[in-house]
Amino acid sequence: MAFEQYFWLIGLGILVGTFGTLIGAGGGFILMPILLIAYPHARAETITCISLAVVFANSFSGSLAYAKMKRIDYKSGIIFALATVPGAVLGALTTDYIPRQIFNITFGIVMIIAAVYLFFHRPTDDQKADKKLSGHTIRNLIDKTGNCYAYSYNMKTGIIISLFAGYISSLLGIGGGIIHVPALARLLNFPVHIATATSHFVLSIMAFTGTIVHIVTGSFAYGGLRRTIFLSIGVLIGAQIGAMFSKKIQGIWIIRGLASALVFVGIRILVMAFF
């Protein structure tokens, strides 16, 4: 196949990088269904390793942009990232044993469940950072523009969620941001902009781990290296654009955008799996 036929992947990568970084989800949930549709005869593990490698490129680039804004909670992010590693390894090893149709159905259901949760769950504002809640970690951050973020959360809950997110992300090649961002913002009371930035930081470590395992197990042996390179070029550009737009968009619209995208993706994949 001529290199010219891969160039459209750069444009796709820019789209994935922009929207994925904007909502802190890595973009894998956008990329995976497109790859599943564009390459219907490819092995599930090949599609997964391509997506996960691209998610790493996106999250790494986005993390650099968010770091300049001082919106990453590094203390929490490092702990959550370490918790994702065992799950990411297990997920990468599991992918090879799942038939393509079962893979598609699982992917679609996960998307829709996450979207429904985001649509109907409303965060409460009654938790303050100065509350000495048992087992809660208190955090205070000030970003580059001087905005102060004060919040507290249960560390044990965050670690359990991260372990699960690591498994799902590596299994489905979606990066795990669609789990981490809602979990950080809704369950752990992170401000949305801190949640998206910290999620991206965690994703960079999680996706890197899963990608390495996929490479070691030979998933790239079935093709996909060129596609990964062209997509990665696009997401490196798109991630910077998404981080820039995040300064101008309110948190509630980021969450609504994420939920809307998940509904579309979930339904599309389920229709493709059954018909």
Distance between the termini: 29 Å
Mean pLDDT: 80
Rg is 18 Å
β-strand amount: 5-15%
Shape: globular
Number of helices: 10
Adjacency order of strands in the biggest sheet: 1-2
Largest sheet: number of strands, sense, barrel closure:
2 strands, antiparallel
Succession of helices and strands: HHHHHEEHHHHH
Structural class designation: mainly alpha
Number of strands: 2
* Fraction of helical residues: over 70%
Residue stretches low in confidence (pLDDT < 50, at least 5 long) are 124-130
Characterise the protein shown here.
The chain is mostly helical and 275 residues long. The chain has one domain. The protein is 71% helix and 5% strand. The protein contains 10 helices and 2 strands, in the order αααααββααααα. It has helices spanning 8-23, 28-38, 44-69, 74-94, 100-120, 155-172, 177-187, 192-216, 225-246, 251-274, and strands at residues 136-142, 148-154. It has a two-stranded antiparallel ribbon with strand order 1-2. A hairpin with a 5-residue loop joins β1 and β2 (148-154). α1 crosses α9 (225-246), α4 (74-94) packs parallel to α6 and α4 (74-94) packs parallel to α8. The longest helix is centred in the first third of the chain and has 26 residues, at 44-69. The two termini are 29 Å apart. Mean pLDDT is 80; it is low at 124-130.
Main attributes of the structure:
275 residues, globular, two-stranded antiparallel sheet, mainly alpha
The gist of it:
The protein is 71% helix and 5% strand. It is built from 10 helices and 2 strands. Strands 1-2 form a two-stranded antiparallel ribbon.
